[in-house]
Amino acid sequence: MKKNLMPIAVSAMLFSGFVAAQTNNDTSFNPKISVILDGAYYSDNIDGESFERLEEMSGILGGHGHGDEGHGHGGLSRGFNLRETELTLSGSVDPYYDAWLTVAFADGEAELEEAYFETRLLPAGWKIKGGKFLSGVGYHNGQHAHSWDFADQNLAYLSLFGDHGLVDTGVQITYQPATDLYTLMGVELLQGDQEKLGASVDSEQLEQEAGPRLTTVFVKAAPDFGADHALQLGVSYINVGNHQEDHGDTDEIPTVVELLEGDASVWGVDAVYKKSPTGSYGQGGVKLQAEYFYLDKELTIEQASDIDEIGEKVVGQQDGFYIHAVYGVAPRWSLGARYDVTGMTNDLEEEEKVDLGDSSRMTLALTWYPTEFSKFRLQFARADISKFDEEAGTSASESFNQIFLQYNISLGAHGSHQF
User: Fold this and answer.
1) What does the alpha-carbon distance between residue 116 and residue 120 come to, in Å, rounded to a whole number?
2) Over 216-245, what HEC string results?
3) What is the C-alpha to C-alpha distance for residues 400 and 398, in angstroms, rounded to an integer?
4) Nearest to 341, CA basis, from 364, 325, 367, 318
5) Which of 188, 262, 295, 395 fits a disulfide with 216 by CB distance 3.0 to 4.6 angstroms?
């Protein structure tokens, strides 16, 4: 949710003053503070409308309520953009808990991205996290935008989870057994308030069930390949018990009403391989990363202008996939290539079954790392995006090019990187 910038800025200054006043006490709460500056020069060859085309991309999830109003990392104007400034406070509360807070500032407004606590001393490899946080499903989902290997969200996540990925309020329980094979098992109970999967419609005509409405289960494993090679494999499952959509049309006279709700679920697999650099400052290092998701939904029309439609089933299946590789071509320089696609399966069945079409993109990115606290990236993408025409009953594709010149600067505490 977006909020006015001033109250949060004043609170941050007061809190910083409190922290400074407590420095004479070694046991005082003294969090690490970091600021991430992210900006980009952006251009495309369709008059700056590429992000609008991506928002209209064919998919079986759509027609939501409040979720569409959140800020995104991706929408840019042609020319110079300050995408967002991210403020993070983190640290140990006491011997039992760590805490984390991340607020993103963009366009004069602020959004709480993460605010959670995590246990430190539970026995036998158990951990509990509570609050608002990035879900542990998949691999890419757990990363903030400043850690991405590319300047924008991949199409698989964009179409199924939204530009932020899967982030929600709830509790996460993980278990890491003490074995030679690294294994992490986790389950999450989340409220279910999402931009795409697990969206809620802002309408008094649909009753919203009490949370938690979204559940996830994930398992990650990493066999031991020695010091120079690393591989992590994962499988994830997501279930939503109260997914809602609004397929009405307020532009029609009279207004067309069509409100749906029901169940949705996603299966996913992910794989990440890393090879240690053979030279200095990342030269010769390799990273291969891939994920695949399959979404299935079954909704019921609960309210409609046409009374005969009430009670009808709407069923859909959609998948998404990406693969990318990053190679250290020289000290402090890396070259990345990505292929992402959504809608290889993209079927929606109401009165009849229709294929909504697929969207794909090829991306190249050259990144320079002056230090571990900064990076500059030149990225080019060629996209082929499908849009479904409901009146014609067919989908049509449009191709366009995108260019990013991105900078990312980190001040203050610099946390450890994800595997």
Assistant:
1) 13
2) EEEEEEECECCCCEEEEEEEEEEEEEEEEE
3) 7
4) 318
5) 188
User: Which of 71-75, 105-109, 240-244, 313-317 tops mean pLDDT?
Assistant: 313-317
Whether 4 maps to a domain, the answer reads no
* Residue at 262 is within a domain: yes
Could you give the CA distance from residue 147 to residue 418 in angstroms, rounded to a whole number? 9
Query: For the segment 389-412, what is each residue's pLDDT rounded down to a tens digit?
Result: 877 778 889 999 999 999 999 998
Residue 253 is predicted with a pLDDT of: 65
Confidence (pLDDT) at 160:
95
CATH number at residue 354: 2.40.160
What is the domain extent for residue 182?
Answer: 46-66+123-131+154-405
Q: How far apart are CA 217 and CA 171, in angstroms?
A: 12
Please give the tally of structural domains in the chain: 1
Question: What does the alpha-carbon distance between residue 293 and residue 235 come to, in Å, rounded to a whole number?
Answer: 10
Per-residue pLDDT at 12 exceeds 60: no
CA-nearest of 92, 88, 96 to 114 is: 88
The letter for the amino acid at 20 is A
Give the number of other Cβ atoms within 10 Å of residue 258's Cβ. 21
**DSSP 3-state assignment of 51?**
helix
Could you give the CA distance from residue 112 to residue 108 in angstroms, rounded to a whole number? 14
Rounded CA-CA distance 285/271 in Å is: 17
Tokens of 349: 């069945």
As a whole number of Å, the end-to-end CA separation of the chain is: 30
Q: What is the pLDDT of residue 115?
A: 97
CA distance 273 to 290: 9
Report yes or no: 135 and 167 within 8 Å, Cβ to Cβ. Answer: yes
Measured in degrees and rounded to the nearest 5, phi and psi for residue 319 equal -130, 170
Q: What is the dihedral of CA 41, 47, 48, 54, to 10 degrees?
A: -140
CB-CB contact of 256 with 243 (8 Å): no
Is 234 among the domain residues? yes
